[in-house]
Amino acid sequence: MAFRQKQYYEQVYHVTEQIPVGRISTYGAIADYLALGSARMVGYALSQSNANDMPVPAHRVVNRKGELSGRHHFKPPAAMQEMLESEGVKVEDHQVVDFKELFWHPEALDE
DNA sequence: GACCTGACGCCCC
DNA sequence: AGGGGCGCCAGGT
Predict the structure, then answer these.
(1) Structure confidence at residue A80 (pLDDT)
(2) Residue A107 class from Cβ within 10 Å (0-12 exposed, 13-18 middle, 19+ buried)?
(3) How long is the CA A65 to C1' B11 vector, in angstroms?
(4) What's the CATH code, domain A2-109?
(5) Any idea which nucleotide's C1' is nearest the CA of A39?
(6) Given this model, what pLDDT does residue A18 score?
């Protein structure tokens, strides 16, 4: 239902927005937390958010390997890395350094 | 209206 | 351990 879709997008934006500065999350983690759709849908939702000029820190969301898979979707592809580095997240070869330690679990919202 | 692709991830071989 | 395939849902062609 379109109803559910809107809710899904809204939830994705909400969760993404809760990612603390200097921390990052993954598509899979968000999808798992929402228990809806799939990681792919999360990325899709985020792409829409960027197009809508939403205040969603999509740059803090990477794939499960810690790679900036979505960098190519930013206005300047390098913007994603720059923003992350600006927040204290080190990026090396399009990959987040110590990604595992910087990883933020959406599950933290429940607690 | 059908087919393909897309910010991914897991299961199977 | 590495590679390939399928699932996910929606949107564009």
Answers:
(1) 93
(2) exposed
(3) 18
(4) 1.10.10.10
(5) B8
(6) 94
